[in-house]
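Hello, quick one for you while I still have it in my head. A protein chain has come my way and I'm curious about its shape. Can you walk me through what the C-alpha cells say about the fold? No rush at all, and the record is pasted right below.
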Amino acid sequence: MRRVRPPLGLSCPGCGSGLEPLNDGPAEVHRLACPECGSTFRARLKSDPGPPATTPTVGGLNLAARGFVLRLIPPVYRAGVAAGSIVLLAAGGFIPVIRGWLDDRVLSLSDVVETVGGIRVVSESRDPDSDFGPVLRKLDAPPLFEEVAEVARRLGVRPPEEIRLAFLPCCGVVAWRRSRALLLGLPLLHVLTVGELRSILAHELAHLARGDATWAAGSLRFLEGIGRALDDPDGRSWGPLRLWAALCRDSARALIGPIARGQEARADRTAASIAGGSVTASALIKVALVQPLFREVLGVHDLDGDGNANVYAGFRALWSRLPEALLASMRLRLLTLDREAADSPHPPLPDRVAVVQAYPDRPETPSDIAAAASLVGDPDWLEQMLHDRLFGLPAIKPSVFHKAGS
C-alpha cells in the first residue's frame, strides 16, 4: 500500500501552488516538485528547529525590556556629555573655548562641547523632501489613500498624515516632531499587485500601531548620528567624550539589532493575517528582488551620464521584459540564502517566507490581482517628477548673452 504523505505547507515561489515530495524516499524530504508549473526544488532542512543564535527571536517582555534600555541611551549619553564637558572645562578646556568665542567660532553650547572634544549629534531630518521624498497629494491617488485608510482602520491606528514617494523601491514609516509619514517606493507600484501592496501597507502600519516608528526609529536615528560624527575624518580621533560616544554607540547597536528583528517579525505576522499568507510571501520576495535590480539600473544610468533618460521608466521597461525563467532563478537564489547581512534589521528571508506562508489565504477579487500602479492617477507624471527631484533639472549651457530686446 502506498504511503500518503501529509501536506508540506510550502508554496512554489513561481506560481504559488503547493509543493509536493518528488518521490517516496526517506521521511526527511530533500527534493520537492510543483505539480502545476513542473519546477523542482531542493529543500534545505534545519538541524536545529530553533532560530539561529545570532538572530534571536525577540518578543513580548524581552522586546519591551530591550526597548526600555534602548530609550535610556540618548538621555544617558547627553548626561555623560554634560558632566564630561564640565570636568574638561575645569581642567583647562575653558582656554580654547574662550579663544573660539573671541574668534566667533564658539557661539552655542554645541560649539563648546565640540571644542572640548565632544561630538554634535544631528538626528532630525533637515529637509524631509530631499531625505524621504516628495509628498503625494490625495488628488493624485485617491484609491491609494482609501487603501491606506482601510488598512489603518483594520489595525486600529490613525492613518499617517503624509504619504511620501520614496526615491528607492522600499517602504517604511517615519515620525519626526508631530508628523508621521508613510514612505512608498514608486518602482514598487509597477511590480506589486494591489493585494501584495496591501500586505506591505499592513506591515508598515503595524509599526505605527505598536509605536515602532516613534521611539525605535528615533533611537536608530540617534545611533546613526553618533556613527556619522565618529566616522567624520575631520573630527578628533581621541578624547574622553569621543570614547563615551563610541561606548554608547556600541551599546545601542547590541540592543537595536534584536529589537528590529523582533519588530519586523511581528509586522510580518500582522501583514499575513490581513492580506493572506501566500500574498504576503509573494510581496516579500518581490521587494527583495526589486531592490538590487533598481540599484543596477541606477548604476548604469550614472555611468551613461544621460540625465534626460527617466530612470524610473527605464526600470519599468526592464522589469516588464525579464524572462519568467530568469525571475524564477532569482527567486530561488533569494530563498536559498542562509541569513541576511549582519547589519540587516530583517530576519533571513527564507524564515520570513516560512512564517507568513503558515497563515491562511484570503479570497482574492479581480481588483486584488491588478497592478498597484492602478491606484495612482498618472504614474508617468509621477515618475518624471521623482526623476527630476532625484537628479535635478538639466543645467542650462551658457551661450551668447545680449541685452534683452536688442
The mean pLDDT is 76. The radius of gyration is 26 Å.
